[in-house]
User: Fold this.
Amino acid sequence: MPDRSDVVVVGGGVMGVSLALHLLEAGVENVRLLERDGLFEGTSGAGGGFLAPWTTISPLHGAESKALPIERYGMDFYAGLHAAGYDIDYRRNGVLWVAASEAAWNQVQQLTWYAADPGSFEVEPGRMAELTGGAVSGDGVYGGRYLPCGAQVTTAKVAVAMADRITERGGVIDTRRPVSEIRVRNGRVTGVETPGGAVDCETVVVAAGAWSNRLLEPLGAFLPAVPQVTSRIITEPLGIPETMPVLMLQGLMPGEPGGGTVLWVRGHHGGLLWGGMYTTYPRNILVDAPVPDRLDELPTDGVLENQRVARAATFIPALSRPASIRVKHGAPCYTPDDMALVGPVPGVEGLYAMGGDNELGVTHGPGFGKALADRVAHGTSDLADLTPWRIDRFGNRFTNQAETFQAVVESVGQLLVGEDFAAAGEPR
Ligand SMILES: Cc1cc2nc3c(=O)[nH]c(=O)nc-3n(C[C@H](O)[C@H](O)[C@H](O)COP(=O)(O)OP(=O)(O)OC[C@H]3O[C@@H](n4cnc5c(N)ncnc54)[C@H](O)[C@@H]3O)c2cc1C
Assistant:
């Protein structure tokens, strides 16, 4: 006998887990989450775990960002898990944006900080040591901006907490159970196939991150989102104070005019956790290439990353201390308009998708999970009308990865005015 569920969620990353939990909270009784590996072993396990109203301070969206309610919901959601006693390493230490060049400082000053957090304030370089428990000296820094609402979590611990809530509410989580096919009859979902047997259901939500298109393509559907390799590094303990804010370091490399890309750094169990967005190899190696099931053997960019860390070490002395490191890779999926893809998949009744995380899925997952769960269960959500994130908003403009990637380069390029960005237009 096949298993039977009301709703099947495919993918146990932060998107799928958030959705499964909120479906149960919205009153759907029989929710089953199917995960190929273990929970958060894809991109979510690599997530830095920084929480803030990111789109609201992004020049791509600004003060009017439609995602602000989603971002606020996510931040409250993790604070709620912490308040309920779950150990998720939750710390509301704020975010300190540090401009390491004049161009970066000019850019930072133009961002819409007050919309993101009315308590935000400017930080003189001389005050940085005080604000960071001595971790940032402020030497050679142009200025900074502090966002008190910013917080941080450890994503692997979030997975445990959310799984606990799902099972407590009667949901079923099947790990090591990959979905091989979504069954459709007469234009309607009838279930999914897995090596461990079929699951009959009338509603399926694909939240399989960088692997979502693998499941959707046989049904003639395509999510316009491209995977971008992104890695984070964790050091052994270095005596970093637990109170250190998340640091966003901009303008580190002279060749990145306009502020360029950001290196992010935070404390993690006394050590440092860092990573960043860059546009050079291997960022684009998964574009128009099959995404391997395991991301752990992807390469890292030893050159640019090391150069940026070396430069940052001039004002974060702990970065220059010898330390063993652990690396984890992810493949966040970027969309042409920097907005997620959440809602019904056109052409197949009962099929939904939740993807296009734009590297903000830890912050946005709970909010989109709630909004989509409400939509599936009740047809509408008080948190957000999902129209701006609907999957078919581009019409037929993007039918493959190459077209999508070019559009991503053009939109994200507004943030990265560096020369290396032009080179990033060529997938490698
Ligand atoms: C280095 C790094 C730092 C980041 N930092 C932050 C941050 O500070 N703040 C923030 O908000 N976001 C951050 N992000 C982004 C965030 O991690 C992602 O947006 C988010 O994890 C994407 O979640 P997901 O559920 O869409 O994908 P995933 O976590 O990849 O989940 C998809 C799941 O689907 C499963 N799957 C695939 N195919 C199948 C199948 N056929 N059947 C069943 N299961 C399947 C996979 O195994 C995987 O577990 C960061 C990402 C990286 C890589």
The longest helix spans residues 361-378.
